[in-house]
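Feature request, filed as a ticket because there's no other form

It would be nice if the structure record came with a short human-readable summary line next to the tokens. Right now we just get the raw output. Example of a typical job, pasted below so the devs can see what we mean:
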Amino acid sequence: MTTHSISRRPRLAYVTTHAISAENLMNGQLTFLRERGFDITVIAAPSESLDVVREREQVATIPIPIEREISPLADARTLAKLCGILRILRPDIVNAGTPKAGLLGMMAAKLTGVPVRLYTLRGLRLETTSGFKERLLAATERIAASCAHQVICVGDSLRQEFVRRRLVAEDKTIVLRHGSSNGVNAARFQYSAEQWSRIEQLRASLGIPAEAPVIGFAGRLTRDKGIVDLHAAFTRLLDEFPNLRLVLIGWPEEGDPLPADVWQTIQAHPQILRTGAIKDPSLHYGLFDLFAFPSYREGFPNVPMEAAAAGVPVVGYSATGTLDAVVDGVTGRLVPLHDSAALANAAAEYLRSPFLRRQHGEAGRRRALRDFRREDIWQSLADLYTDWLSKRGLPLPISLDEKRVPQRKAA
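Raw output as currently delivered:
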């Protein structure tokens, strides 16, 4: 009997700092992999999101305290607990992502001899830091990558930046298909007549006049997301488009707050509409003539792809990650980092031309449907796991469909 004939399901453990990453970036992915024969456990800090993941995806979860920021004593305790958990679980594969969980998860996986260790790189926090913190974050990334057998980069520009900084050997990295953590559920943005009616009701409830153009943004309202620059660009645009509205979907974050004067101005401005966090903002994209995304750094940003799926062109910065989500001159416009004037000019070009908006919006929709189907990305991940299991002589997954096929009796 070969090793591959072992009947047990291959054990796959995900480690992430906060389960909101699993809730949002693995939505449907875990169910897909479970149904294709993987025994899955998600390890993350205790939260409601972890409960959501367990119930929605029907996978095992283990809560463990993981601090997002650097905390040597707490991190040492977490590492010890992770090692204990992995010794009990004995996973065939560990996939760890987010900076802290990536570091501790990969270290624990190596210390406990996990056969397949994969680090999922979803962004580089160090890109917007300097000095000691930048060097420290670089060291943690280098350790996480060195403990991994392979680094899954969610975008090619992120992979190039990771390699350029000499944090990993190029041949150790991989990008699945065209990138992205989880693809885009384009069906959410293919609006029916009933949904268009609800979008019009939403416009009225927000007090947006029928003739007013709308720029949208979704994400954390922080410096790193370029909200200061977006505010400056919006203010500049009002000279030419006095009826313009800016809709901000998201929330502030204490770890990267906006300057007090900018935040106060945003709160007081009658044409800047703040919705707060919204569980499913898919209908809001139907309000937008244009989507603005001036983030300074990303892994592979999801919201520009959601805008594309809704047929909305995107203006943003030529930042790591955004370079992969927006095709400059085809699905949107990319301008140099920190140049709010150029951002405003790119936005104005779209606001002046309904034809250009439709042309680039439709190009974005076609690209989202063609290159970023969730099922294609999930299958690529399942194939990667299977390849590694095969290399290690470990049990291979058997999907639920395969199990349902009746076996032929011997003659």
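Something like this underneath would help us a lot:
Residues 374-392 form the longest helix (19 residues).
The chain has two domains: 3-183+373-404, 189-371.
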